Amino acid sequence: MELDTIRAFLAVADGSTVTETAEQLHRTQPAVSRALARLEREVGTPLLQRVGRGLTLTPAGRELAGHARDTLDAYERGMRSVQDITAPDGGFVPLAFLHTLGTWLVPELIRGFRAERPNVRFDLRQHGDAGLIDDLFNGVVDLAITGDRPQLKQLESRQLFQEPLRLVVPPDHRLASRRTARLGDVAHEEFIVLKRGFSLRSVTEDLCAQVGFTPQIGFEGEEVETLRGLVSAGLGVALLPESRSGAAPIAPSLRITDVRASREIGLAWVRDRHLPPASAQFRDHALRTSSKIHVSDA
After folding, report:
1. What does the angle CA 231 – CA 237 – CA 240 come to, to the nearest 5 degrees?
2. Are 94 and 123 in contact (CB under 8 A)?
3. Domain closes at, from 82, 104, 131
4. Are 168 and 194 in contact (CB under 8 A)?
5. Nearest-CA neighbor of 165 among 210, 109, 125?
6. What is the pLDDT of residue 298?
7. Model pLDDT, residue 14
């Protein structure tokens, strides 16, 4: 079984058409079709079935797809390890992280790491929490910087630091002129939150529960800055990390006094998967230097 055939099979399994797969692999469409047919002959059973105008996996195809991903992942990791050995000052680090950390934390960690290893390359991906975990399990990335350490036995994780959260209110809100507030002060107001599956959503609900209420959800979003914009429009309040965009704040941000409002920023990787040298060294760098990153709670 050729690696390109595995790649073609997985591309079709993930929803690409044969034409799109051929373009991705720089092969002709008939060549890809023949490769898929040859794979089915080797396995001895149909792997793909036509549904409408597309192809979907048969039960046998679904079974093979998981093993094929593991095979391709192992090969690519092996190739990277060899490249790291033959070019010890180089290497490649695939890293996923939360959107909100891309403006300050990730650049700072990479800048410090590349001061010692300037030839290391990075493949960076931004996601919500669920996407981070998917990328880890699928072998797309080696490391993920998370908004809450995932409690999964397949993953190893370490805390980097606690990031303070603020009560963000509309500019004309009754609390807008204050620097601090109690979370209980907004117990009866509508909250703007991230959708379920984002760690900040569960952190918000947990903090409200500690104070003694269940937040009334007015709007749900998928990005922190979208939530901040909705708050500034007067649609509700939110618990958010400080904006680090450098622009003037669009909504007042108050320190909370009746509960410790913060979220844990962590680093995660697959427990039993060998990390190539560059990724292992970046992991150690992040764990070593994160304690020196200043996260103000003033």
Report:
1. 85
2. yes
3. 82
4. no
5. 210
6. 47
7. 87
Could you tell me if 131 and 273 lie in one domain? yes
Question: Do 254 and 125 lie in a common domain?
Answer: no
Q: Tell me the backbone φ, ψ of residue 263, rounded to 5 degrees.
A: -130, 150
Predicted TM-score (pTM) of this structure: 0.69
Which secondary structure element, helix H or strand E, spans residue 126, and what is its range?
Answer: strand 121-127
- As given in the structure block, the two tokens for residue 63 are 């079974």
Domain range for 206 is 163-262
pLDDT digits (tens, 9 = 90+) for 81-129: 676 655 656 788 999 998 888 888 999 999 999 998 898 989 899 888 8
Q: Do 215 and 194 touch, CB atoms closer than 8 A?
A: no
The number of distinct structural domains making up the chain is 3
Other Cβ atoms less than 10 A from the Cβ of 88: the count is 12
Q: Decide which of 23, 51, 82 is a domain's last residue.
A: 82
What mean pLDDT is predicted for residues 1-10?
84
Q: Is the dihedral of CA 10, 11, 14, 17 positive or negative?
A: negative
Per-residue model confidence as pLDDT tens digits over 177-209: 999 999 999 999 999 999 988 889 999 999 999
DSSP assigned state of 296: -
Same domain, 40 and 60: yes
Does residue 298 sit within a domain?
A: no
- CA–CA separation, 120 and 110 (whole Å): 10
Amino acid at 19: T
Regarding whether 195 and 226 lie in a shared domain, the answer is: yes
pLDDT tens string 54-87: 788 899 988 998 888 888 887 877 777 676 655 6
Q: Which residue has the higher pLDDT, 226 or 1?
A: 226
